[in-house]
Structure formats: C-alpha cells, structure tokens
Design a protein that fits this description.
The structure holds 2 protein chains of 2 kinds. Chain A is mainly alpha-helical. Chain A contains 13 helices and 2 strands; from the N terminus they run αααααααββαααααα. Chain A has a two-stranded antiparallel sheet. The chains are: A mainly alpha, B mainly alpha.
Chain lengths: 268, 362
C-alpha cells in the first residue's frame, strides 16, 4: 500500500469525521478555532518542570473528544509523526539536567526526566487540540473562519481548492507509483534516472488540469472568490457558539491557573 | 524539519507568526498588482497555485532512492514552487501545503505553523528565488543550448542546499530561544546542519531532475527562462527593504548570541578569563597606556555621550540592552550614511548646475 494511498484515505477519513454531528461539530468554526488557539497558548505557557499543571490540562481535550464522539485512538495514531522529533529533542534532557527535583522512595527524579515528560506531554496535548479542530470542522467552515479572522481570501480559496484537488492528484500519484513498482519489483523508491520524468509528468498533467479548471471556473462566473455560504451557526452571533466559547475559555483559565492536581493530591 | 508545538515558547511562536504573516501580506499585495484583480488578488493564478500545492503535497508522498545509501528521501518543494509559480505565489502555495500537513497529518504544530512557514517556505521561495535562482537563470554563467539545463541544475542544487541550511539553522535558533530543552546551541547545530546538508543535496537533485524535464517539455512554465541579465533586477526600494530587514534581524536578534569573550585586540592586549588576564601582553585592562589631561577630559566626555556603554543599558547588563544597542548603532550608522549621501547629492547637483550654466553661456 503506497504512501499516497494512505494520505488520500487520511484526508477522506478526516473530512468524513468533520461532517458528523455532535455538540462540538455544530458550533461555529470561528469559536472552535479561537478555543484551539487559546488552548495551545495555555499549554505552551507551562514551565519546563510544571508537569502537575499539564496533567490537569489533559482533562479538557478528553472531555471534548467524548462530546464530539471521536475516538482518542485516531489521534494517538498520528503521534508517529510527532513523537520521533520530540524524542530526539527530549532524549538528551535526562543527561543534561541532573538536578534532583523529586524523590519517590529510592527513585530520584531529576529535572531532565521531568522536562522530557513535559515536552512529550505538551506535544501530545497540542496534537489532540489540532486534530480535534480538523476532525470537527469541515474545510469550508475552517476557510470561512479564517476569512473572518482577516486571512486574505486568496489563501483561504487556495486552501479549499487544494484540499478538493489533493485527492484526485494523490489518486493519480498512486496509479503512477503502482505501475512503476510493478515494472521495478523490489526496488526501494524511484530510481534516480526516473526522478525527473516521474514527477515532471505529474506536473505537466497537473498544469493542464489547472488550466481547464480555471477556464471552467471562469465560464461559471468565477471572479476571484467563492460565494460565502455562511449560516448563522457559522458566525459567532449564534448563542450556543458564544456559550461554547465563553465556557471553554473559563475552563481553560481554571485548568491553567488553579492547582487542581495538587488539590486532588491533597485529598488522598 | 516540521517543528512541533511543544518545541516553541508562545513568544517565539507569536514572533514567527508575525514575520511569516508579514511576508504573506506582501505576497498577496504583489499578486494583486500582477494580475490586476484588485481585492481578489491572485485569482488568475489561484487554480494553478492550488494544483501546484496539491502536487507538492503529493510529490512528498513519493520516495526517491538515494544512491549508495540504501535509504530514500522526498521532495520539500519550496524551490520547485518558486521556479514554477514565482516567489509570491510559491510562498502562498507553500503556506497552504504546510497548513494541510499540520491539520490533517499532525506534521508540524498549529502554533508552530508560523515558524514552519518561515523555515521552509520563506527561505525556499524568497531567498531561494531572489538570491539564487533568478541571478543564476538571468546570468551569463553558461551559454549555448545546454547552458539552460546547467543553470537549472546549479540553481536547484545550490538553492535547495542553502535554503535547507538556513531553515535548519532557524529551527536551532527558535528552539534555543524558546528554552524548552537543555540541548546546547552548538551541539544542536552540529546535529542539524550536516543531516540537512545531505537532505538538501537529495532534494536539489530531485528538483533539478524535475525542472530539467519541464524545461525540455514546456520551458514556458518556468520562471526567468530566456530572460536577459538586465531585466528585473532589484529595485532600489526592494534592496533597501531587504537590507533593513537583515539589519534588524542581525542587530536585534543575533546580537544576543554574540560571544562574551574579548575581541581579537582585547585578547592580545589583556588576555582573557581562562588565561587569568595575564596571557599575551598581560596589560591591566583598567590602567594602561599614557595618562594625560587630554585623554582624561575626552574620557569624561565619552562617558557622558555613551548612552549605551559596552552595548548595554547604564543600569546594568541585560539582553534587551544588547539588542537596543545593535539596533541603535545600526540606525545611527544608517543615518550618517544618509547624511553623507545627501551631502554628496547636493555637491553633485551644484556642480551639474554650474556645468549647465557654463554650457548655456557658451
């Protein structure tokens, strides 16, 4: 199974998830985008040894995943992209920072161990938040939210068109890749002699497609932007979205500034 | 090279967002001028940009055999996009690719998107195009029929290697400024630069192969093919803006990374801390040379005029003081240069006027 095929399925699966209905799906994309940004800032604002605070933050995406009816395992599967780089960065921490921070019986936990755990946890939390946004917001909604946040229309339109087109192109790549592999069995990657012609063919076909696409769009009255199909639910004037926004902000502030983990620890 | 959110402090992420968005807004403005669609900038190029973004995205899914290593690499796309679409449309297309990778594949964080755009799109599209691709393609380095291909190969390989080196250097600087890890700056740099040199070479070779294919099949698709050397050089304004941005980055940012050790002259006169200040000529830093009334008076004047002594605030050592010193010094030098230039222009105009007057009298 080629990488192109996997990528196509990932995009389709995420789009499928985004088109579902739930308490989170039905909220305004602007509200969801703002909540995600605030959550990311809150997570990143923790110091390198503040593990207890970060542990509290994990409650929020877990609740949100439950409300959105999305399986957490789908998100953890994506950790394969994030984890290697984080581990490369974090694996040196225990050797570089050996200041004892905590003693659990005979086990001494050093600053390096704590900061490595914080790094990995931060990566996980940020991934959870970003994936939740993508899995609960269709690309059209995301583009309209970005436009409302003053992102130029050329970029939002390009994003929308690209996502629509990437599936077709990945399909074409998959076919080319499959036919190449059948002619060169057991070869790892494409031989240097075929580098230019393989991707070059794809470029030429794509440019031709783009030309016909543009002509077709112009014939249908395209003048540089897509019509806005915003409903009340997509804007922030919707009461439920406002409630979701303020509620989420409040919970993020609580989780960020109150020592909930210490209180729970004190009860035990 | 996609950075994860966990590696960046909010302040660094926000700064990188601001710089990347500035470059994006300049690109949008330039595109609107190019196609004349006004507010709906880039409408003509929109489908091509979208398709090219999708192409780069799809191209990254294809692995290429790296000869003699048994491993494989893939395309990054900055140089390819800039060669096919131009720097502005290429930059915006790369932003779209990075956004999709971030949202759908968790490849690079949402908060780190600004940094990733800067590291991968800015260098590839702007530095790669204006400083490498365009000068080579418009230059007279190679002639003849095969010259075009040679130029493309040189521009692609050089562009990919240099822009990836700059990108990986930026990753190191951004991570170090964020203070997330204890990895020393030099150690991290020594890890990142060599590996990206190898990746850059492979990417350069792939990009060159693809562009050569396009050059043979449809040369009109490539930017600057068949352009003369005199057309489209940097305008005075653009050169000044690039220089000003470089000065701000170097004077304000990189000055913080400057070595705390004495410079060559100080080292040879006074030695350094490791040498117990007795090495070399062994002079006392506070008390050396000939003391005279004139030198004392001038020293007192200097103490009053130096508002940033030793490149920091009078109140004490601070990183902000170093940055402010760098920026203030650069501004003063630029101001002096402007005054000298203006004075030169006045003198030149006077001479020209005199010449004209004499010619009129004759």
């Amino acid at each position: 199974m080629s990488q192109a095929g996997n990528a196509k399925r990932t995009i389709l699966r995420t789009e499928e998830l985004a088109c579902g209905r739930s308490l989170i799906h039905d909220r305004s994309p602007v509200a969801k985008l703002l909540v995600t940004i605030l959550f990311l800032i809150a997570v990143q604002s923790f110091g390198k040894y503040e593990l207890s605070g970060l542990v509290t933050m994990i409650l929020l995406p877990m609740i949100a995943y439950r409300l959105a009816n999305i399986e957490l395992s789908l998100c953890f599967y994506k950790l394969r992209f994030v984890l290697p780089f984080l581990l490369i960065m974090g694996v040196f921490q225990p050797f570089l920072d050996r200041t004892p921070k905590l003693c659990v019986g005979a086990l001494v936990i050093t600053g390096g161990m704590l900061s490595m755990a914080v790094l990995v946890l931060k990566g996980l939390l940020c991934l959870m938040a970003s994936f939740l946004l993508a899995a609960t917001t269709p690309v059209t909604g995301l583009c309209s939210a970005l436009e409302r946040l003053c992102i130029p229309r050329i970029m939002t339109s390009c994003l929308l068109l690209c996502v629509r087109y990437v599936g077709t192109l990945l399909e074409q790549t998959e076919v080319m890749w499959e036919s190449y592999s059948l002619r060169a069995p057991g070869q790892k990657g494409i031989h240097p002699k075929a580098w230019g012609s393989f991707l070059g063919q794809l470029i030429l076909r794509s440019v031709d497609k783009a030309d016909s696409l543009y002509t077709a769009m112009c014939l249908r009255g395209f003048q540089g932007s897509f019509p806005k199909g915003d409903t009340d639910e997509e804007s922030l004037t919707d009461r439920r979205s406002l409630l979701y926004l303020t509620g989420s902000f409040f919970l993020i502030f609580l989780a960020r500034f109150l020592p909930l983990a210490e209180w729970i620890g004190g009860l035990l | 090279m996609h950075m994860a959110d966990a590696l960046l402090a909010p302040a660094v992420a926000a700064t990188m967002y601001a710089t990347s968005m500035t470059a994006a807004s300049v690109s949008v403005r330039r595109l609107s001028k190019e196609d004349g669609f006004g507010e709906d900038a880039g409408a003509k190029k929109l489908p091509t940009m979208a398709v090219m973004s999708a192409l780069v995205f799809a191209g990254q899914m294809v692995n290429y055999t790296i000869p003699g290593t048994g491993s494989s690499g893939h395309l990054c796309g900055g140089m390819l996009l800039t060669a096919l679409l131009g720097p502005y449309a290429g930059f915006l297309s790369m932003i779209v690719v990075l956004t999709i990778q971030c949202l759908f594949f968790a490849d690079g964080g949402l908060m780190a998107l600004g940094a990733n755009i800067w590291n991968m799109a800015f260098y590839g599209c702007f530095v790669g195009y204006f400083l490498i691709y365009r000068p080579i393609m418009r230059g007279k380095l190679f002639r003849g029929e095969k010259g075009g291909k040679a130029k493309i190969i040189l521009a692609s390989v050089l562009g990919c290697v240099l822009t990836l080196q700059l990108g990986s250097f930026s990753v190191v600087v951004e991570t170090s400024l964020s203070g997330v890890t204890d990895l020393p700056f030099q150690g991290f740099l020594a890890l990142m630069q060599p590996i990206h040199l190898a990746i850059g070479l492979v990417e350069g070779a792939v990009t060159a192969a693809v562009l050569c294919f396009v050059y043979e099949a449809r040369p009109e698709l490539l930017q600057d093919v068949g352009e003369t050397a005199n057309r489209g050089r940097f305008s005075g304004k653009a050169t000044l803006l690039v220089l000003a941005a470089t000065v701000v980055v170097i004077a304000g940012g990189f000055s913080l990374l400057a070595s705390q050790n004495p410079d060559g002259l100080e080292w040879s006169l006074f030695g350094n801390e490791d040498g117990g200040y007795a090495a070399n000529m062994g002079l006392d830093e506070e008390n050396y040379g000939i003391a005279s009334d004139t030198s004392k008076t001038l020293g007192a004047v200097q103490e009053k005029t130096a508002f940033l002594p030793d490149y920091s605030f009078r109140t004490g050592e601070s990183d902000l003081g170093t940055s402010v010193s760098g920026l203030a010094g650069s501004a003063m030098v630029a101001g002096c240069a402007v005054i000298v230039c203006l004075a030169g222009r006045v003198v030149r105009k006077k001479k020209e006027n005199e010449k004209n007057r004499k010619a009129f009298k004759l």
